[in-house]
Design goal:
alpha/beta, Rossmann fold, Cytochrome-c3 Hydrogenase, Chain A, domain 2, five-stranded parallel beta sheet, two-stranded antiparallel ribbon, 17 helices, 9 strands, 10% strand, globular
Amino acid sequence: MIVPKPSTFPLNIYTATAQFLHRIAGGGSIRVTRRDFLKLAGMMGASTVLELYKPQIAEVFAQAADKGVKLVWLQGQSDSGCTVSLIQGTHPDLYDAVLKLNVNIMFHPTIMVPSGEEAASVLQTITPDVLVVEGSIPTGEKKHACVVGEVGGREIILEDCLKDLAAKTKVAVVAVGNCAAFGGIPAGKPNPTNAKSVSGVLGKTVVNIPGCPAHPDWVLLTLASVLIGVMPTLDALGRPTAFFGVKLHDECPRRGFYDAGKYAENLSDEGCLINLGCRGPVTLADCASRKWNGGMNMCTNAGAPCIGCTHPEFPDKVSPFYVRTEALPDFYTHEFFKYFTGAVTAGLAGYVALDAVNRRRKAKEEK
C-alpha cells in the first residue's frame, strides 16, 4: 500500500492519509466512520480520495450503510452494455462492491432473480436511495416503446416510472452510459421513438456517466461517492470531472506521433490515427490513463481510432466512424464550443492550428 509522500501533499493531508490507511489496515479492529472519511475527503478532495484508495474506501462505505442502501437500476433503450461492463469490473468487482457497500439492489432487470409481476411490483412501492438509469427513454406518443413490466395487467411505462421514482429518490439520480446521459444511439437521427436522455425527461441536472459502454470504474466510484453523500465535482453537463476533465488526445499514447506529424494510413501503421477518423481531440475521457479490461489496454493503444463514445452528441456528430473529417469542421462550431469553458475552447483552437501546420509540413515532405 503506497501512501503519498509529504512532498506531494501538505503535511496535514499526509498525516491524515497515513492515519486513515493505518486504521483501515488494522483488520477492522478500529472502525473508520463516515465522519472520518468526509474529513479526509474535505482536505484532499473527494475525487482524489476515490481515485487513490477505492478498494480501501469500500470498507468504509460498509460501515456507513448498516441498514443497506436501496438502489434501483432501470434499463431503457440500450444493449445492456453498461451492465456487462460493470459486471466485468475489477478492484473491486461488482460482487465485492455490492457486499462491501452493503447495497440492496431492489431492481435490476438483467441480474435480479425475481421476474414478472413479482419483480415489477417493487417499483410501485419503493423509495430508492439511488436511482440508476441505463439507456435512453422513449417519450411522448412513442413512450409505449419501452415497458418495464406489468402489474395487475397494467403496463409500467419507463417514462412514467422514471418520473415517479426520480421524484422520490433520496440521494441521487445517476445516468449510466451515453444513451442515458445524452440520448446516444437511440436518439440519433431520425430518432423514431423520440428518445431522450434522463435529464431531458426530468428537466433537471443528474449525474451523467457517458460512454458506450461506461467504464466500470466510472460507475462504481461515482456510486460509491454519492452513497455516502460525497457528491463528485461535476462539469456543466453533469459529468464527474475526475473522469471527464481531460481530452483523450492529450493523454493518448500516440500523441507523440501527432506532434511529430506522423500519421497512420492503415490500422496496422505506427502513427497518429487522425487520418483514420480518431475523435480523441474532441472527446473528454480518461481512457488513456485508466485503460480498460483491468487496466490492460484502450482503443488507440490497440490500434483502433477513438470513436468519441463519451461525446455529448454521439453518434451523430462523430460519424462516420473511421473516416477523417477535414479539419473536424463539425466539432469546431458553436454547437460544440457551447459545452466548454474558454480555456478548453482555446486549447481546441490551438489543436486546429497545430493540425494545419502538421498537414502542410507533411504535404511539403511528400512533394
